[in-house]
Specification:
Chains A, B: GO terms for molecular function: adenosylmethionine decarboxylase activity. The structure is a homodimer of 125-residue chains. By secondary structure, chain A is of the alpha+beta class. The first copy, chain A, has one domain (5-40, 56-108): S-adenosylmethionine decarboxylase (4-Layer Sandwich). Chain A has helices spanning 17-20, 23-36, 89-99; strands at 5-13, 41-48, 54-60, 63-70, 75-83, 104-112.
């Protein structure tokens, strides 16, 4: 089905706090993650909050990647959503987990565009 | 917990196909949805695909709203993610469902920033 997509929701904990507060670094990581998964980057929008935290999105032809970081808690909330079956969103998510040096992560994959939303148990990448 | 968030995932079907392909309209709907929920808009990025379809994001101080539309299938994939407990993401999601004239929707709310990701059964807004 053309509407089919895969949406990886990842909760990253015990990350490198300096990297979680570095907007330029995060933006580069997210663009690289998209490219590494084989996605085509269309729009990039990031925002730095005071005193800390970064939010941002990379819109790809195949959907999006987002982050909200909480450096003070070592936490980042990540979404990688890819439409179609050409790209594996876990490739991008795993790249991000490594780049932010997450000590642990909890991840679920949500099928999109297929009917009722059904979600498996969370796991680590 | 400061990292606490609520992430509404909504699958909208049988939408108004003309509206699903109208980027300006969708952008306005998403900004209005964010404001209606009481959020503060920080960044707006939308992209129109050829021959059809719109992807976009509104980054708010409290996280984000995203859409990917498939006019040819009357389908839109929506995410409304709000951090904290001040804002109800369902208010924005419901506004979007109405504005896109979705005949039906399937929605789940995912708790974020709280530990393992656990998801309830999907429901209609």
């Amino acid at each position: 089905m053309d509407t089919m997509g895969r949406h990886v929701i990842a909760e990253l904990w015990d990350c490198n706090e300096g990297k979680l507060n570095d907007m330029s670094y995060i933006e580069q990581v997210f663009v690289d993650a998209a490219l590494k998964a084989g996605a085509e980057v269309r729009e990039v929008a990031f925002h730095k909050f005071a005193p800390h935290g970064v939010s941002g999105v990379v819109i790809i032809s195949e959907s999006h990647l987002t982050i909200h970081s909480f450096p003070e808690h070592g936490y980042a909330s990540i979404d990688v959503y890819t439409c179609g079956d050409r790209i594996d969103p876990n490739v991008a998510a795993h790249f991000i987990v490594e780049a932010l040096e997450a000590g642990r992560n909890e991840t679920v994959e949500v099928p999109r565009g297929m009917g009722p939303v059904e979600v498996e148990q969370s796991r680590a990448l």
